[in-house]
Amino acid sequence: MKLFMTTAVSALTVLGGTAAMADIKLGASVSASGPAAFLGDPEAKTIEMMVDQINEEGGINGEKIDLVLYDDGGDPNKARTFATRLVEDDEVVAIIGGSTTGTTMSILSVAEDAEVPFISLAGAIQIIDPVHKWVFKTPHTDRMACEKIFSDMQKKGITKIGMISGTDGFGASMQAQCKDVAPKYAIEILSDETYGPQDADMTPQLTKIRNTQGVQAILNPGFGQGPAIVTRNKAQLGIDLPLYESHGVASDGFIELAGAAAAEGVRLPGTALLVASILPESDPQKPVVTAYKAAYEAKYGETVSTFGGYAHDAVDLMSHAMKTGGNDPAAIRDALEATQGYVGTTGIYSFSPEDHLGLDLSAFKMLEIHDGGWTLID
């Protein structure tokens, strides 16, 4: 896999020789390096793998996809530069990417101005609420994650919690969304702590939560290494309270970073991809997630991740829209918005002019970590 930081590249370089017949130009900018590489690396690999597969199977209506892929390193300024280059120099007809909320918002503004359809791979609700005409996304929103978590807390009789949130774009957005929807679920936030992206010890904040009378559980909106540190510190402090994490850490990498013992019992909302082997045969997502998991793991020799799944759905959705829209960005956008009942790794998507996510809470699975692996709660 080759990613390019500063120069436009031909699909011949990216896709290993298939570019001579390429006719439809697809752009992508993901965070394959830097602090968000755990998101962007599997996304980049998935995008390349799927474009190769599509081209090997005859492309889009007989036309090959010419992929131009950039690594923005998680830097919103680079993401904006690459998005502009994709539109103005590479002349792509659609864009996939934005591994983080910050990079997504940079790409979003360029895509809207240029009237090029864009599918984001990030979680924050502001990406699609309010609806932007040219912007869609594949991950569940942070607001949905709050609702799924609070629904599970209700079932367990939990009404009073402590919250410790990252101050990054995703963490801050989810913190705000959880505060907003908590009253709907009769959840009272008794303690509200934060930590920065570079913080390496959250014991002071966790100690405050532990010492807050009445707290029944801890919720940690965040992604990256922060939630793993929170999980380890909680175990080190011997805090005997249920811990809920966000879907931003729904990967085996989180368990490895936190340590299986510390992560034991942690609950979070995730996708069918993480529990592919234990899904019932009747689940309509099972064939999709098992096929993607097998293809990815065979090609790259590493465990598939939720984040790669977001890219899988984005490429598949975009390629289906291209079958109708061809090389016309407006027609591709219209075809995306008309998508109904598409079964992906993340859920079953049905877009509309009022909804550019197309998922509801049924697309989330409540997962619990047990013996270093994932178990399905509902």
TrEMBL record:
Signal peptide: 1-22
GO biological process terms, semicolon-separated: amino acid transport
Alphabetized Gene3D superfamilies for the sequence: 3.40.50.2300
Keyword Transferase: no
Alphabetically ordered keywords of this record: Amino-acid transport, Signal, Transport
Residue ranges of domain Leucine-binding protein in the record: 24-356
InterPro entries: BCAA_transport, Leu-bd, Leu_Ile_Val-bd, Peripla_BP_I
Keyword Signal (UniProt): yes
PANTHER family in alphabetical order: BLR7848 PROTEIN, LEUCINE-SPECIFIC-BINDING PROTEIN
Similarity comment text for this entry: Belongs to the leucine-binding protein family.
Name used for this protein in its record: ABC transporter substrate-binding protein
Organism: Thioclava dalianensis
